[in-house]
Automatic annotation (TrEMBL), chain B:
Coiled coil: none annotated. This is L-lactate dehydrogenase complex protein LldG. It comes from Saccharopolyspora antimicrobica. InterPro entries: FTHF_cligase-like_sf, LUD_dom, NagB/RpiA_transferase-like. Residues 114-210 form the LUD domain. SUPFAM superfamilies: NagB/RpiA/CoA transferase-like (SSF100950).
């Protein structure tokens, strides 16, 4: 995988991708704005969402233990996994113990992150993705490009092609007269997957939330494939990042309002399932939770970086990001694309590879992601923080720190819009335009540059306002 | 693996050292200035409007008209085999068996059996007006979770007294120990060019009957 700048260049040449993306993101943006506007207490909900997550993270050991106790008491089993390899081993062993050779899967970022499907395949176990978009991605031998709409980069003609060529190889084939009507395509997916749902004895899911107090898990979805996986099989294995915890059942009142409105722009998603351990006579009678670290404790140890763990994976930040809109999700080389990917991935994986080093730079720092984030993650601040870290770690503060700073500074200062954007970050808390048309202090590490000299002030318009004004698609 | 230290202990240890020195606040200190309730002048009217927004069929039933409305809804759906889970009022079975050849109460039915059911008729436990959501906790009258998932038509009866104004109010009425399904409209996908399509894996049709009576 090439690092973001090269990958982005390739993706930028793909006009089909850009067209699909621009359409999709602008549609979701408008729906979101409408339903968020309906709630006069959105700001308070957002504040509470951030506060609950921050509180949970600062007491995470207590809540993890409480969650384990509650799940166990309700008849489930909790497993702990330090990294991807350990998590995959646990899941493979659990599936093997059932004697089954296949599992059905609900779309899950955590299992994508650990590459569970590949691990299962290596163990001779077929894993079927059941979310329509994930099915398109899987049948197309492709990777997801958006958190919420993983096949956002495919249009209907491509999907028809994939279904006709691939479905028959792994199960019920697509009908011979399949057209590219979305309803017909969805019907073909329904028939293809129904056979698998009815046969599967084991399912693998993620979870949107895990309630420490009660041991309940929550899965939010639209199609009903989640409900199928969560209730029809005999064994259910849920892979859950340790940051998914919320303290109490009552806390869901905040997140069940924030998540659907921020992600699909709906007042509520069609289906939300909650379950607590096993229920005799209803649903899987064997239930396992794999609690996954895989770098999360690294992020937790960074007091500024930690806030990225508040993320509820709504994807609102992707849909407003001018960089994402142009490059698409693949360019990020990460399961988590867009602004959140740019700050989460380097923390989970560390910043040793070229891909991860480049990620904190995959942004214009315009601040739109911060504005929409339902848990108020200050992504621009985090980007700057991580850039500093990359510079410190890899150029070495002692050797040539100013080189890195200078090249970054010249990139930012080379364009008034970029500078204005960088200043917007700074302006959140400080005055940035200095005396008499010179710029004031820039956020670190650029502050090391601006602190030492006066520079001419840029145009007053921020990149953000410029972008909004010039975003043709929004006025449709 | 060198299991000198278990993964559990390792992760908890890493968490503890990561948050060492972090200020620990109590759960009660989290500011909750958002609305706990969202009163509406016509709560039931708002609920119906919001459910209908998801392209579900919503009908308000006059007092005493529930069984007639249930039978009519099943006919509209073109159903031949209907299922009303154990625990629904006896009058429902009486009305249904006089009209339909196959009426099941879901006892002992398996997934293959559910595939042959055309329409399922259930009660609910809570309705949420601000979002148009119906909540099932799969107690009596609601069937186990697969019952309202596999058949293509779901007819759901919600009593006016079950309608909560907002999400916080709705959640307070629920018991987290029970498995639950929150339903907002029929099954839907927008994965193909963001065109909304109903009925991917779950029911294609959701028909909600709102009644002033206790079901
Ligand atoms: S960072 Fe915020 S906006 Fe982006 S996906 Fe996470 S919660 Fe949503």
């Amino acid at each position: 995988m090439p690092a973001f700048p090269q990958a982005a260049k390739q993706e930028l040449a793909n006009s089909q991708l850009r067209h699909n993306l621009a359409n999709a993101t602008s549609t979701i943006r408008h729906k979101r704005a409408e339903v968020v506007g309906e709630l006069d207490d959105w700001a308070q909900l957002r504040e509470a969402g951030a506060a609950i997550k921050s509180h949970t993270l600062s007491n995470l050991d207590t809540y993890l233990e409480r969650f384990e106790e509650a799940v166990t008491a309700a008849g489930g089993t909790v497993h702990w996994a330090r990294d991807a390899a350990e998590a995959n081993r646990i899941v493979v062993d659990l599936v093997r113990a059932t004697g089954e050779r296949e599992v059905v899967k609900v779309k899950s970022m955590a299992t994508q992150e650990i590459e569970l499907n590949e691990a299962l395949q290596d163990a001779g176990i077929d894993a079927w993705e059941t979310d329509l978009a994930e099915l398109i991605v899987q049948l197309g031998h492709d990777t997801p490009s958006h958190i919420l709409v993983p096949a956002i980069h495919r249009n209907r003609a491509e999907i028809r092609e994939i279904f006709q060529q691939e479905m028959g190889k792994v199960g019920t084939p697509a009908p011979a007269d399949l057209t590219d009507e979305p309803a017909r395509l969805a019907e073909a997916a329904r028939r293809h997957l129904r056979e698998k749902f009815l046969r599967a004895k084991v399912a693998v899911s993620g979870a949107n939330f895990a309630v420490a107090e009660t041991g309940s898990l929550v899965v939010v979805e639209s199609e009903g494939n989640g409900r199928m996986c969560l209730t029809l099989p005999e064994t259910l294995i849920s892979v859950v990042g340790i940051e998914k915890l919320v303290p109490r059942w009552q806390d869901l009142e905040v997140f069940l309002q924030l998540l659907p409105r921020s992600s699909t722009g709906e007042r509520m998603n069609p289906y939300t399932s909650t379950w607590t351990g096993v229920t005799p006579g209803d649903g899987p009678q064997s239930f396992h939770v794999v609690l996954l670290d895989n770098g999360r404790t690294n992020a937790l140890a960074d007091e500024i970086g930690r806030q990225a763990l508040r993320c509820i994976r709504c994807s609102a930040c992707l849909n407003v990001c001018p960089v994402y809109e142009r490059t698409g999700g693949h360019a990020y080389g990460s399961v988590y694309p867009g602004p959140i990917g740019a700050v989460l991935t380097p923390q989970l994986r560390g910043t040793t590879s070229e891909v991860d080093k480049a990620l904190p730079y995959a942004s214009s720092l315009c601040g739109a992601c911060y504005d929409v984030c339902p848990v108020a993650i200050n992504i621009p601040d985090l980007l700057v923080h991580l850039r500093t870290r990359v510079v410190e770690e890899h150029r070495g503060w002692q050797s040539k720190p100013m080189d890195a700073l200078m090249s970054m500074a010249s990139w930012v200062l080379g364009d008034s819009r970029r500078l204005a954007a960088a200043q917007k970050v700074a302006s959140l808390s400080r005055r940035v335009i200095g005396r008499k048309g010179t710029i004031g202090r820039l956020p670190p590490p650029l502050s090391r540059w601006t602190d030492a000299r006066d520079a001419p002030a840029p145009a007053e318009e921020t990149f953000r306002t410029w972008w909004e004004r010039n975003r043709g698609s929004d006025s449709r | 693996m060198s299991a000198s230290i278990s993964a559990r202990e390792a992760i908890l240890g890493r968490v503890r050292s990561a948050i060492a020195g972090t200020e620990q606040t109590s759960w009660e200190d989290v500011a909750r200035h958002y609305r706990q309730q969202r009163p509406a002048e016509d709560l039931v009217g708002l609920f119906c409007e919001r459910v209908a927004d998801y392209r579900a069929t919503v009908e308000r039933v006059a007092p005493g008209g529930l069984t007639t409305a249930i039978v009519a809804a099943a006919h509209t759906a073109g159903a031949r085999r209907v299922l009303a889970p154990a625990g629904v009022p006896h009058s429902w079975y009486e009305a249904l068996t006089s009209e339909f050849a196959h009426v099941d109460d879901g006892t002992g039915i398996d997934t293959a059996g559910l595939e042959r059911v055309d329409a399922v008729i259930t009660t609910a436990v809570v309705g949420i007006a601000s979002t148009g959501t119906i909540v099932l906790d799969h107690g009596p009258g609601q069937g186990h979770r697969a019952v309202t998932l596999v058949p293509d038509v779901h007819i759901c009866v919600v009593a006016e007294s079950q309608v909560a104004d907002d999400v916080p109010d709705g959640l307070r009425r629920l018991d987290p120990a029970r498995p639950m399904t929150f339903i907002s409209g029929p099954s839907a996908t927008s994965d193909i060019e963001l065109k909304r399509v109903e009925g991917v894996h779950g029911p294609r049709t959701l028909h909600v009957l709102v009644t002033p009576d206790e079901p």
